[in-house]
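Reader question, answered in our methods column.
A reader sent in the components of a multi-part assembly and asked whether the whole thing could be modeled at once rather than chain by chain. We filled in our standard form and ran it. Here is what they sent:
COMPLEX SIZE: two components
ENTRIES:
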Amino acid sequence: MENLHIDQHISRKYNEELEDLRNKVMTMGGMVEKQSKNALDALINGDSSLAETVATSDYRVNSMEVEIDAECTDILARRQPAASDLRMILTVIKTITDLERIGDEAEKIGRFALKLANSQEPQSYYSELHHLGEHVIEMLHGALDAFARMDVEAAVRVAGRDPEIDQEFEALTRMLITHMMEDPREVKNVLRLNWCARSLERIGDHSANICEYIIYLVKGHDVRHVSLEQIQDTYIQKK
Amino acid sequence: MSENNLTSKRSDDNVQNLRECDIRESAKVREYETIGEPYTDNAKICARDVNVYYGDKQAIIDVSLDIGSNEVLAMIGPSGCGKSTFLRTLNRMNDIIPDCRFEGNIKLDGEDIYDPEQDTVLLRARVGMVFQKPNPFPKSIYENVAYGPRIHGLAHNKAELDDIVEKSLRRASLFDEVKDQLDKPGTGLSGGQQQRLCIARAIAVSPEVILMDEPCSALDPIATARIEELIDELKEKFTIAIVTHSMQQAARVSQRTAYFHLGKVIEVGDTREVFTTPKHELTENYITGRIG
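And here is the structure of the entire assembly that came back:
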């Protein structure tokens, strides 16, 4: 089913419930995207007040997760959804778990940013970190966009960026290790930076997960643990 | 023109539009090929190119479908889609309907059940049926179950007959509830018990296939759960085809599901797949309650 037609049930209330659910996921997605961006900005610019905001505002995402979960439970109990509706509910339940984790990662970056803002930071690595962060946030944005449009091809393309992110993270880690060896006094801060990079890399992983759920939602195929090449071969239209 | 006339004119137009829609849709449906896997390796019943007509109206169009040994096949679809008609062709219950005409071929263990030589009484002993409304005979509980084995000569003496009655009632999970009142009328039982009595009556003649036409639609959820549990146990020994309007029931009890629409089998396959990833849009629309 390419088009899910969630607005075409005989029960208008059911349409509204599913639409509402989808909107809430988009809102939650928007929140974690904003948080991730703020976390990155706070880190790069050493903005301690923004870092503080990020580090302390995760509760909103958490309560949103609980609220959406409750709505899914309600729909499962009362509507007994089948086929694409069932896949929609399962996708939402899984997606919000990943979104919530992204929120956690942003919070972690916020905390480290707060500590790093008050120290003599090794600025030279910030451009690499910034680069990684921008890529990750683009990926998250792409995943949310693919979710909004139920766009499988877009989801496959976004998931396909994950290996780049992993490589960037690896390269950055190598640089940070070198730096630690050169200047052992900086180990603490460099480790903090590495944790931030790790969190960004995890945000990329969670975004890729969301893309896999979108493929499941639209196509009905579970592509977790399927190689990226195979996914690309199956779902990207050969031009 | 008065308002009344206007309204009736409009509704006439609507009816006309609906009819045209119907005709257009049924012409389209006629073209559909069945999606999925209508055939199985271990078929108990093989239906091929089945067409059934009630007078001029065609109720079943080119249905080819297997029912595998020891499987529960669920048939779902909107009212008037032909699922009950198809079910009734499997033990020739349609024979008794005037104007009903059958074309095609249905084999039970490779044997043509529409062979003119076929004894329909024997056929119906091999392919038993349970109906929507429990319909016990106005006789005692014991006699309800004993009647079939007696007329088919399955018991040589009273002890054997007692044994068949007890076993059938046990298999229908009813024995413990009625063992002290076997001489009481079957019609005095609750709806759920009556339906299990009918199942006991159906299995008393050791059928190979049991056809069920919405067996739970007149029952409460507890009685329904009992029957569903029973269906699950019965499939060890029998082959079961069930028509149901409850999608959840089809999903719960069957291994394969066939979706009927305007007399055609649109899609058939593994129940799990039909309910999570149906391939045809009509199936998807039906099981998710969408407007087609």
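What stands out: DSSP finds eleven helices and eleven strands in chain B. Chain B has two domains: 1-31, 33-287.
Send us your own complexes using the same form.
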